[in-house]
Sequence to fold (351 residues):
Amino acid sequence: MRDKMVSILILNYNGFRFLKNCLDSVLSQSYKNFEVIFFDNASTDNSINYVKGNYNFEQIKIISSKVNLGFTGGNNKGLKHCSGELIVLLNNDTIVEKSWLKNLIEDYDSCENPGIIQSLVITEGIKPEYYEMNGTINLLGHNIMKQFEIAEIGIGKILLATGACMMFRKSLVKELDGLFPEEYFFYAEDTFFSLRSIFAGYNNYHTSNSAVRHIGSGSIGKKKNSFVTFCQERNRLLNFLVLFSPKFFIKYIPFLIFNFFVKIIRGLVSSQYSLTGLFRAYYWLLANTDWINNKRDELSKYKKISEEEVLKLISGKIFNGENILEKIINFFSVSYCRIASINILELQKKT
Fold:
């Protein structure tokens, strides 16, 4: 393995409580040819002073923004300071194993036509059984677990590479003319980039040989306030509106309607979704059709494979199917995809 230069880009927003564990674990890597780009997104919790006071040496580049640019803007700006051939996006609320980077690079090099590779991200609150296989997304942009096999060597193809820990060539960003749309701010931007990698003709991979412990929601907390719900719902749906064709959109309308009413009901009976955020998300989509159309046209220039091939990696299930109601809804969703000729993952398994 050639000793490639790697840039590890860690975006921080008020993550002071995570930084010692994260940075200490990164700096203790067995693989040594790397730099750390620490990009602080206008934190107010003394994060930047702590890092400057404890980690201010040549291997770490410390950049501070005067405003919070979000996950998208912060990573886009941080990427400009990366000098590595390979780029790793790593969340600030993670702890990595000593051989994490070495194994990640070795497995990336061993893969066929790799676009993005993700580490095994063990997230608090996620059931251990969900790590037995790789997951994907459904047509609403939510995670559907246990869909793709992981080989005995620990590597398997995936659709979605998580932004908590993903690695890719810097040249891939140049080829696609950008990393994340800054309009997203945060949420579902990793789905966007993963889909673009697939559309460009590359394979995305998971490796269990490179492990990361992840707390989850480290920078924003777990409360679903209006802005969080707005970004989550808008961006999940926006990925399908800007990356797939108008022909697909016609078939997609029932999913948009279903999503809206189910989320409204959940927002009324629980705090899982903010009703204000949901209405804002759908209003934004309706009010920005010109932007959506222009973005779709712009992104279509970089596609090398058809959306039919990409859909084969996306689940038609709405839920992970853990109770009778979820299984019934999944049955009708997959049946609709069959009737509408949306050639999703489950239809491949039956042929």
